[in-house]
Design brief:
The chain has 2 domains: about 5-145, Nuclear Transport Factor 2, Chain: A; about 165-405, 4-Layer Sandwich (Metallo-beta-lactamase, Chain A). It has helices spanning about 15-30, 35, 60-70, 135-145, 155-175, 220-225, 240-245, 260-265, 280-295, 365-380, 395-405, and strands at about 40-50, 50-55, 75-85, 85-95, 110-125, 125-135, 180, 185-190, 195-205, 205-210, 230-235, 255, 300-305, 310, 315, 325-330, 335, 345, 350-355, 385, 390-395. It is α+β, with helices and mostly antiparallel strands. The strands form 4 sheets. It has a 7-stranded mixed β-sheet with strand order 7-8-9-10-11-12-13, with helices on one face. A 6-stranded mixed β-sheet has the order 2-1-6-5-4-3. The protein has a 6-stranded mixed β-sheet with strand order 14-15-16-17-20-21, with no helix packed on it. The radius of gyration is 29 Å and the shape is elongated. Helices cover about 30% and strands about 30% of the residues. It is built from 11 helices and 21 strands.
Length: about 400
């Protein structure tokens, strides 16, 4: 549509709505495409959910012809019509035999179809300006032979294979959530070797996500979050591809530090990466992995700053690896969740090991990253979980100070 419903003038008369709906379906019953198209306002939107979204007159004409030509005996039977002001909900049944031309790229095979649906017409000034139609596309696919009959052995086998693939992909993409502290869980995922950490933090009746991993982890994170009461919001430790990957999939508010806003909504920080600092294998592999990990730019709903309280934690600003990198600090058990403030793996091999400064190839400012590690060390965490692999325990302060000075 070229303008909104509210912009179209004219009084709303239910009698007119009823008459237009009747004329339209009379034309459909008669297979009179031009009479049906004449019921539409030019630019009106025909939206058949899951099948077509087009406009009048040409799009509607093509859509209707694409039904009547493949099914020459297509027959509409209007079951009931409910009218309220400018809307007419028309429940219908239809039958037809697939003996004409192609239907959505499928050759005619003589199949008989029976289906039900609802059209919700919106009428103004005696013309249809919008139609939202709903039909069971899976039933049509089964009747045409594209899918096996429901409950058949072939159907059961297909579903079993699909479920097996789903379970395998989920298992490869991410682990089950592991509780690491009171009200805090970690999900490990991504390639290679499930080295990406995503944290679920109790947030009233649901859970908040801290960091958002890589996009392949999406289904596992969504399921885990639902089991824990639902994902309330996402806090990005920073906006790199392997930490924002799932965020666009979840449909919840996403927060980050103000200094990370542009990169989270932009290229994920790639503008300051220096891939030439990697070895030959890293230079060849990492750019491809970044593309496969990234869920794309994220719409940021709000920002966080040093000292803010969220879900029982305090925000700490730890710039260096990224300008707006933040961590979460809980004084009660001295738990730190700190994204990529430090590494405990070699990003070029995936090998786990001691604490180290994040790799210079991906750092915004490596020397500042060292200072942020010392800032974290001064808090004397009992446990510090980073964005990848294993946490630091025991003498966390000593490990961080050594790493900042020597790696």
């Amino acid at each position: 549509m070229t303008d909104s419903i509210s912009d179209i003038s004219g009084a709303i008369d239910p009698a007119v709505t009823t008459a237009v709906a009747k004329n339209y379906f009379d034309a459909l019953v008669a297979h009179d495409v031009e009479a049906a198209v004449a019921c539409w306002r030019p630019g009106g939107r025909e939206n058949v959910r899951g099948q077509v979204d087009t406009t009048a007159p040409d799009g509607v004409r093509a859509f209707l012809s694409g039904i009547f030509e493949p099914f020459p005996d297509f027959n509409f039977n209007v079951v009931e019509v409910t009218v309220e002001e400018d809307r007419a909900a028309v429940r219908w049944e239809a039958t037809g035999t697939f003996t004409g031309g192609r239907f959505q790229g499928i050759e005619p095979n003589g199949t008989k179809i029976e289906l039900e649906g609802v059209d919700v017409l919106i009428v103004r000034d005696g013309l249809i300006i919008e139609n939202n139609a709903f039909a069971d596309g899976m039933t049509i696919a089964r009747q045409l032979g594209l899918l096996p009959p429901d409950g058949s052995k072939m159907d059961a086998g297909m579903k079993s294979a699909f479920n097996g693939r789903t379970k395998l992909m989920a298992k490869l993409a991410a682990s089950e959530p592991e509780q690491i502290a009171e009200g805090v869980w970690v999900i490990r995922g991504g390639f290679p070797g499930k080295t990406m950490n995503v944290y679920l933090v109790r947030d009233e009746d649901g859970v908040m996500l801290f960091d958002a991993g890589v996009k392949s982890m999406g289904p596992a994170i969504a399921i885990a979050g639902a089991k824990l009461g639902g994902i309330t919001r996402v806090v990005l430790g920073h906006g790199h591809a392997d930490h924002r990957g799932v965020a666009p999939q979840l449909g919840v508010p996403v927060l980050c530090h103000a200094d990370e806003l542009a990169d989270a909504e932009g290229d994920g920080g790639e503008h300051y990466f220096d891939i030439s600092k990697l070895n030959a294998v890293g230079r060849a592999l990492l750019p491809k992995l970044l593309v496969s990990w990234d869920g794309g730019p994220v719409e940021i709903a709000g920002t966080l700053a040093e000292g803010d309280e969220i879900a029982g934690f305090k925000v700490i600003h730890l710039p260096g690896h990224a300008p707006g990198l933040i961590g979460l600090w809980r004084e009660s058990d001295r738990l730190a969740l700190v994204s990529d403030c430090f590494y405990t793996l070699d990003p070029q091999t995936g090998f786990k090991g001691h604490a180290r400064v994040p790799h210079a190839a991906f750092n915004w400012d490596t020397e500042m990253a060292r200072q942020s590690m010392l800032k974290l060390a001064a808090l004397e965490p009992a446990t510090a979980w980073a964005g990848h692999t294993e946490p630091l325990r025991g003498d966390v302060r000593g490990q961080l100070e050594t790493a900042a000075a020597t790696t």
